[in-house]
Amino acid sequence: MAEPGAAPGWAGVARKYAATLADTNGVALPTGELERLLLAFADEVADSLPPPDEGALLRFAALFGAAPIGIALADRSGVVVEANAALAKLLGGTAESLVGRHLAELAATPQDTGRLRAGLARILEEGDDRRTVRGVHLDHRVDGGLITNVTLAAVPGDTPGSRFPMLMAADADDLHLLGERLLHQNLHDPLTGLPNTAAFTARLEFSLASAGESEIALIYLDLDGFRVINDGLGTGVADQVLKKVARKLKAVFDGPHEGYEGYLARLSGDGFGAVLRGPQLTQQHAVTLVDRALLDLQEPEYLDGEGIGVSASAGIVVRSAAGDGHIEMLRAAELALHRAKEAGKAQWMLFDPHQDARDRGRYRLGAVIAGALENGEFSLIYQPTVKLAAQDQIAAVNAGLRWRHPEKGELDSAEFYPLAQTTGMTVPLGRWLLAESLAATARWRDRYGDAAPDVCIRLPKRLAIDPDLVMLVKEQLDRHALPARALRLCTDRESLFDETGEVLDSFSVLADLGAQLVLTIEGSSDLELIPRFGLPVRHVILSGAVIEALADEPAEADVRHLGQLVVRAKELGLRIGAEGVRTARHAHRLRELGVLAARGSFVADSATGDEVDEMIERHAR
What we know:
Beta-Lactamase, Alpha-Beta Plaits, TIM Barrel, 48% helix, GGDEF_dom, Biofilm_reg_signaling, EAL_sf, PAS domain S-box-containing protein/diguanylate cyclase (GGDEF)-like protein
């Protein structure tokens, strides 16, 4: 049986010749006959070996010939047997002229020849896989010599355990160009060719360190609604638009200007940054360039017959180079950009240190909403709606959120809801509001029976379009054993008619379950939406100018207008309430015109849970 790993044909050949050599009838074989038998044995073993992988040999030959670095293959003694064209070009001769030379003798100096011989010894005698000899002077037939790094290695031979030395070398200038190319790729955006964030940050740090007392301007620009282009026309078109945007901005900001110079980079998908510095730079220079850039971007670019224009928002910081470091300057520009976005986009904002302090405080609040909710810092705050015919009776209670901040005290929803929208926390807050409001309603019903009021809540839009809203409401109603009619959902025209119609769909399903839909209106146009779209609305709340007009001494036209609204609402079978009612006299006028219930400072601007409990208890008695 053949030993593991032996070629299949070898065992039979070995047995054959072992038998021949053993069967000599005790006669010693002559040396010539023994030599003949051994050579025959070797020939048969060679014939039994599998054929070489011709594909692998061809691939190696192609790689050897096309390699951009010089390669010389040598025999066991280190004499070159083959060299590729790259090595011949590197040494200024032909591949044939290198054959027959020892690898070490390719060096131009005795010292480097000795270094190469020592490296070859480490490869062949001590078994190192490779050895790099740095700064070797190689013999160049024309120029006399060149300095480069040489790598010595060993490649396996065609018999087991055999190793043959090889030498690899490259032109240092080529390596330098490769390094420069890699450095450029690391510091530039591949799409636009502009410097990237790393290069921009380095440039800003350098500008701050070297500008002395002169002014530095940092500008952040961000395209408005670029996703519309990306989603509507495809990423290919979007990339072309970004290239054109980059060229326009480069023409405005990059390079020398009169008295200062500019540097533009791409910082994100559709965000760009510019640094301006120079002895004559002023704030007005930065503003002028930004105005020009925003105007140029609005000019349509035609791609595939489509005229595509974009708008951008910008944040501008201009300060002495001796001021804060680059991190603070970058943050200031970001805050200014956020203000421009919040103010309506397609405009620029200058950094304002006072506004900066306020913004940082606001954003800090937004960042910790999740933890505040988990730690029980939120509570319900109520606004009671009373019947105008019997103002000691509560018709409904509007529930909202209040944040008991450990440092800032009591915060109304207007102070944190916009931040919650930015951080995605409106849904968790809305879920908590719904659950706690229905829990309070269940408690009132258990304690006060029919005297308990309904609860009315305004859901944040993000929760109002949540696909799980109906299931969530039903779960909470079932958990507290409440009928759906105990819940009133308050909304307005803008919230109800979103682009997708999802809010209306959700509220319609909830109305079918029995929840009461309340619509806040400010005039006839809002009211007429109800019959026009068949809205499942049961209550309307008059709000805004139509109520404000009756607060003091109302004009006859204002009285007539509100009276017409009440009449029309009654024709539609709606119950009419009002919000923002200031005084008892104000409430009296509204009652005379047919308004049934109202809330506002004439009762209480807000009330805690305990205060509402006391009001309901008085009503119940």
